[in-house]
Amino acid sequence: MKQLITLRVNGIDEELYVEPWWTLSRVLREELDLIGTKEGCGSGDCGSCTVLIDGKAVMSCLYLAMKARGKNIMTIEGLNGENGALHPLQETFIEHFAVQCGYCVPGMIMTAKAMLDENPKPTEEEVRTGLSGNLCRCTGYVKIVEAVLSSAEKQGN
Amino acid sequence: MRFDYLEPHTIKEAVSLLSTYNGQAKVIAGGTDLMNLIRTKMIKPEYIVDIGHIAGLDYVKYGDKGALSIGALTTIRAIEMSAQLKERHPVVSQAAGQLGSMAIRNVGTIGGNLCNAAPCAETAPSLIGLGAALKIVGPAGERTVTLEDFFTGPGQTVLQRGELVVEIQVPSQPPHTRGVYLKHSVRGTEDLAIVGVAAIATLEGERCRNVKIVLGAVAPIPMRARNAEGKLEGKEIDDALIENAAQAASDESQPITDVRASADYRKEMVKVFTRQAIRGVVPTPMHRAFCGTG
Ligand SMILES: Cc1cc2nc3c(=O)[nH]c(=O)nc-3n(C[C@H](O)[C@H](O)[C@H](O)COP(=O)(O)OP(=O)(O)OC[C@H]3O[C@@H](n4cnc5c(N)ncnc54)[C@H](O)[C@@H]3O)c2cc1C
Ligand code: FES
Ligand code: FES
Fold this sequence. Notes:
The structure holds 2 protein chains of 2 kinds. Chain A is α+β, with helices and mostly antiparallel strands. In chain A, 33% of the residues lie in helices and 16% in strands. Chain A is globular and about 50 Å long. The relative contact order of chain A is 0.16. Chain B is α+β, with helices and mostly antiparallel strands. Chain B is 34% helix and 25% strand. Chain B has 12 helices and 15 strands. In chain B, β12 and β13 form a beta hairpin. The interface between A and B is medium-sized, with 27 and 28 residues. One FE2/S2 (inorganic) cluster (FES) binds next to loops of chain A.
């Protein structure tokens, strides 16, 4: 039976009815129309569904919506820079041509954000390890890693 | 996927729900294993009992005498990052750091990793090697089971209906105890282990004691390689002994062939990684000659 719950998504409290077995990715995409978050594998392997929960990267395809009550959920739609500009990660992904089909990008960027929040000056090796749960079938990763490193540099200034 | 969601706030409430729904209920902690089991219809529970709302099961703490206890709901990531563990039981945080991606480690718990009872469970070999025990609470009260006796088969444990693991307890280790956990997999931490090896030993001068070699992913349960341990116990370690121990571990492992690797390959890799793990723990004469006392 559906239950009425409140989810705090990108700073807004959303009231909605959910089935207890609905995953967060499904609720974000199908109930809240936040389709920036992608679902690739549905099994935790590809990272395209990554969102931040209380600042930590989480695979939303394996995470029950019921578990997300009372927490701060942030999706790619909630990410922005100062005064509504693009976030530095979004800018550097564009500058470095780190986007081809784009399917992996929201997950990549959310994971990169969680990583840089924790470790603002990562080495290339740390970026590669940090993003190892996010698969990209287009870019070959080089430009994505460059974009994340360049964003770290920008944010450091 | 279809189930009712129950959210106990105390251990007692959880045990009582699990006993009431006798066999139709499954515990969920982080859900990184359970959600996949349900999604692929391996199991079809009618009720999910979310223990994530029970307060006070998320901690890493040390007692006066150096005994370590870890709450069952502590995330793998918290174990990986714990400054205390890195200093006092580095092999535990090192093994945790090799489980899945950061986003999986942020959600997956140590209780879940052990109770899921995969033969390749990343945290099991090092904890077995350190002599860990599990505190279990159930309808009949509390009991403690050593981790070595906890697993009974792939996905199977000694847990009875209504029982929960609430704490992982690790006895204090003698000074100069060292441990290493190595994971061999195709895609780094992301992929499940083809072979996992924990080596733990206490160095008494040149001799090594309390040697534990524990293998993951090469038997129905994480297993101690007792013959390999026997080759090293109380000895001054040299390359020939390491070779004997690595061969013994390979001989006593019982791997299967699956999508990740063939049984033959796994046996070979047990040898390679056991050798490497022992070298990581015990300085050999050659090593001592070049690097001081090591
Ligand atoms: C993409 C991906 C990669 C992974 N990589 C690895 C890896 O490299 N190595 C590895 O070892 N694992 C890996 N895993 C498996 C999983 O993430 C870990 O086993 C994790 O620690 C499970 O914890 P959880 O809290 O999510 O468990 P859950 O899924 O919540 O529970 C797992 C099982 O344990 C039971 N359970 C949980 N807590 C308790 C408790 N306190 N008492 C009694 N029963 C309990 C549940 O009923 C269930 O049967 C991976 C999973 C995914 C999806
Ligand atoms: S869709 Fe969640 S990890 Fe692939
Ligand atoms: S850009 Fe296509 S999957 Fe990454």
